[in-house]
C-alpha cells in the first residue's frame, strides 16, 4: 500500500491552527510529549486527566511547552477511551464548526512504549487536515504475516460486518493493576450490539478503519459527526469499571466515527482495499491479509486515516 507523504503546503497551513492535547494519565512520565510534537505547531492547551492519583512527572516540560496546562482528577474507569469521551462531552457544546472546527485535538496516553511505531508528527497533522482523523501509530502485526517496521500501511482496514458480528473478548489483563472480575460485558455480546446501542453513525461500507493503541488526532468538527446524546452514552458505558470489554469496542470504532468520510468515499475505499481488509484473529485483530502494494488515487488516499 502506498505511504501517504506529508505535504509541505498542508504542514504550513496546519501550523496556523490551534492544537489541544488530551492526556489520559496513570503513572508514566509525560516529558516525552514536547519532543514528539516539536516547536513548529501552535499548542493551545493541554488537559491531563489523572486517573490513578499519582504524581505527574514531566509536568514542568509541558508547562514550558503550552500556555495552559490543566490537571483534572477522574475515577480510574474505562482506561483512555473513557478519558477521551469525557473530554468530548465537556467540550461538545463549545465547538463551533465555522470558528474552530479545523482545530485539532490530540488524544494521548501517558506512556510512549510504542514510540518506535509513531508516525512523524508532520505526517499525522497532514493527514488530519485531509480526512479529519489520523492514528498516531502504525499498525501492528500479529496474524502470522510477514511484517516489518519499515513498511507502514496507513491504517488497518477491517471487514465491517465481520468485525461487528464477531469481535468480543472474554478476558484481558495487560497490567497487574487491571481488574478482571468485571471485564466481560453482560449487556453486549459483540461490538455491533454496542455500536447500535450507542447510536454511532458511520458510513455504509464493506470495510472500516481501525486505529489501535488509543492514540490519535482529530479535527474538532469531526466530533460533531455524532450527537451529544451518543457521546454521553459512550462515556456512561465506559464508566462500568477500569478494565472492561467496552473499552476494546471503543478502541476499534474511533477511526470510523471521527473520520470525514461519506458513503460514496467509503465505497471507493472498499473497491481498493476490500480484498486486503482484515478479519479477526485471536480476539485482537489483524493487519492486511497480504502486504501488497496497491495503487490508490489521490482522492481515495486522502480519505484514508493513518
Concise summary:
The protein is an alpha/beta fold and 306 residues long.
What do these coordinates show?
The chain is globular. The longest helix has 13 residues. With 306 residues, the protein is of the alpha/beta class. The C terminus is likely disordered. Helix 2 links the parallel strand 1 and strand 2. Helix 4 runs antiparallel to helix 9 and helix 6 crosses helix 7. It has a 6-stranded mixed sheet, sandwiched between helices. 32% of the residues lie in helices and 14% in strands.
| Beta-strand percent range | 5-15%
CA(first)-CA(last) distance: 12 Å
User: How would you state the average pLDDT, rounded?
Assistant: 82
Give the SSE order as H and E letters: HEHEHEHEHEEHHEEHHHHHH
Q: What is the rounded Rg?
A: 18 Å
Structural class: alpha/beta
What are the main properties of this structure?
6-stranded mixed β-sheet; 32% helix; 306 residues; disordered C terminus; alpha/beta; single chain
Fold topology:
Elements: H1 8-14, E1 18-25, H2 33-37, E2 42-50, H3 59-65, E3 69-73, H4 79-91, E4 104-109, H5 121-131, E5 133-135, E6 156-159, H6 160-166, H7 191-198, E7 207-210, E8 216-219, H8 220-223, H9 228-237, H10 245-251, H11 254-258, H12 263-273, H13 298-301
Parallel strand pairs: 1-2, 1-4, 2-3
Antiparallel strand pairs: 4-8, 5-8, 6-7
Helix pairs in contact: 4-9, 6-7
Amino acid at each position: 500500500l502506498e505511504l501517504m507523504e506529508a505535504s509541505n503546503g498542508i504542514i504550513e497551513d496546519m501550523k496556523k491552527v490551534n492544537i489541544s492535547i488530551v492526556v489520559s494519565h496513570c503513572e508514566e512520565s509525560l516529558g516525552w510529549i514536547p519532543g514528539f510534537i516539536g516547536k513548529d505547531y501552535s499548542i493551545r492547551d493541554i488537559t491531563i486527566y489523572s486517573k490513578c492519583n499519582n504524581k505527574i512527572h514531566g509536568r514542568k516540560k509541558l508547562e514550558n511547552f503550552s500556555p495552559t496546562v490543566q490537571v483534572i482528577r477522574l475515577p480510574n474507569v474505562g482506561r483512555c477511551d473513557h478519558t477521551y469521551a469525557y473530554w468530548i462531552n465537556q467540550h461538545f457544546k463549545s465547538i463551533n464548526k465555522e470558528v474552530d472546527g479545523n482545530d485539532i485535538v490530540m488524544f494521548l496516553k501517558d506512556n510512549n512504549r510504542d514510540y518506535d511505531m509513531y508516525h512523524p508528527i508532520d505526517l499525522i497533522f497532514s493527514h488530519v487536515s485531509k480526512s479529519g482523523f489520523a492514528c498516531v501509530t502504525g499498525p501492528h502485526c500479529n496474524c502470522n504475516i510477514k511484517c516489518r517496521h519499515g513498511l507502514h500501511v496507513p491504517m488497518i482496514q477491517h471487514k465491517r460486518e465481520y468485525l461487528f458480528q464477531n469481535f468480543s473478548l472474554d478476558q484481558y489483563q495487560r497490567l497487574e493493576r487491571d481488574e478482571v472480575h468485571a471485564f466481560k460485558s453482560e449487556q453486549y455480546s459483540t461490538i455491533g450490539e454496542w455500536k447500535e446501542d450507542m447510536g454511532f453513525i458511520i458510513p455504509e461500507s464493506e470495510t472500516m478503519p481501525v486505529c489501535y493503541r488509543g492514540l490519535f488526532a482529530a479535527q474538532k468538527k469531526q466530533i460533531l459527526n455524532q450527537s451529544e446524546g451518543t457521546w454521553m452514552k459512550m462515556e456512561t458505558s465506559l464508566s462500568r469499571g477500569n478494565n472492561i470489554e467496552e473499552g476494546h469496542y471503543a478502541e476499534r470504532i474511533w477511526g470510523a466515527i471521527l473520520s470525514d468520510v461519506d458513503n460514496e468515499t467509503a465505497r471507493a475505499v472498499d473497491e481498493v482495499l476490500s480484498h486486503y481488509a482484515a478479519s479477526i484473529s485471536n480476539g485482537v485483530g489483524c493487519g492486511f491479509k497480504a502486504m501488497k502494494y496497491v495503487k490508490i488515487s489521490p482522492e481515495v488516499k486522502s480519505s484514508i486515516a493513518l
